[in-house]
Amino acid sequence: MTELAALARHSNAWPFAEARALWDERLKGKVPAKGYVLFETGYGPSGLPHIGTFGEVVRTTMVRRAFEALQPGVKTRLFAFSDDMDGLRKVPDNVPNKDVIQPHLGKPLTSIPDPFGTHDSFGAHNNARLRAFLDSFGFEYEFKSATAAYKSGEFDAALRRVLEKYDEVIDVILPTLGPERRATYSPFLPVCKKTGVVLQVPIVERDVAAGTVTYQDDDGKPVTVPVTGGHCKLQWKCDWAMRWYALGVDYEMSGKDLIDSVKLSGRICRILGAEPPTNLTYELFLDEDGQKISKSKGNGLSVDDWLKYAPPESLALFMYQKPKTAKRLFFDVIPKNVDEYLDFLGKLDGEADDAKLNNPTWHIHGGKPSAEQVPITFGVLLNLAGVCHTDNPAVLWQYISRYKPDANPATAPLLDRLVKHAIAYYRDFVKPAKQFRKARPEELPAFTQLRDGLKGFTAEPTAENLQNLVYEVGKAHAAAYPNLRDWFGALYQVLLGQDQGPRMGSFIALYGVPEMGMLLDRAIAAEDLS
Fold this sequence. Notes:
With 530 residues, the chain is mainly alpha-helical. It contains 24 helices and twelve strands. The longest helix is centred in the C-terminal third of the chain and has 21 residues, at 413-433. The model has no long low-confidence stretch (mean pLDDT 93).
């Protein structure tokens, strides 16, 4: 056992806990007969990839990397599976040329023309978008298409197994259905030879030996089709179980809304003769009002929204933190996650080896975190953009380069990205909400003393020394500010136009002692700082 594997056995980080459960409880400490451990994520390609897609793949990847650290000699694979043979039920709202799709409702997505005009089918278009989406984040995965698996014969043996166990499967499914649906339900959905539509019709006859099912056509005539070769598709809960059985899936996570489906599909998987995969149930995301985020509603934010204002590493941190707890996913959580990511990244090198495995950045970067250390918080960058009143990164870099002479866009690419993100976030969210107030008469002595202290400052202008100066001025004016938080709050409200702000010493060190003195001059003179 390697030193890393030994440490992984005792790490409290949830990906390691998942990896240990997979190895110890499901695999019983043995490599599967297929020669590798299979992780899977699922995708319904009737819509475009979204933030939930990212969350599921990044979390599964974290567990996969933890497993590889725990069992370094065991091969792993990750399938990103697209259920592109599913019949399309309605025309999506977010596609062009809806009239291209409308005549083909009910057909598999891979049999419907592409409304974007770029691929052979709507399914192929969305699959390409999924692969491009995953590739943009550098995920290591293998793409799997349901259509290809059904039509190539990859699922044939498993489909025959479902036919063989038909009655047992039905006994699991029927109690979960209403009376009307129960009367017509079949796990097999024949694909109509005439129309190409995936049919939800009663099966009137089954031939296990021949591997066929029979249904009645619209004209009342019986139609017999093989269950193999893409002539039938399974209803999705049975389909999920069949896929686990056919591919030998060892690990797949899913959202809280699928708890019952996981249990049902697990029962079917056991009926077919396999153990269902280890599963992690993650909580769903909420919008700013505490409502579940929905693709159809368009509430919450998208991956593109997040990446406009912050780097993907911060989104990965959001996904890492407490996956079993419901979390608000809205714009105001972005700055906090960026700074938490920077804080964890900054601590990593100085931590003991066992502590590193509990650091989120170890999991975000697969055990190989970025070596770049960012000496400035995102919050400070937001406020620097505010006092500079600029959307030009070069202006912010003038201050940064003075504060850290060895830093520039070429040597500090992460910091350069953060500068651009901070400007965008400030412009769209911080600036519109700013409300400056004038310093009150009883506050002017404290503001004046701080200005004078800065203009006569002779110590090294470090963040700590400057913070001490601000702190001492606040203590000297206890009559105006009985609570030091009120003193800092006054500085934020008067100078920055907000109720909360950065560590003032760090901000002054970056902005500049003379510049802060001039800003205080303007505040004392009751100038408009907005």
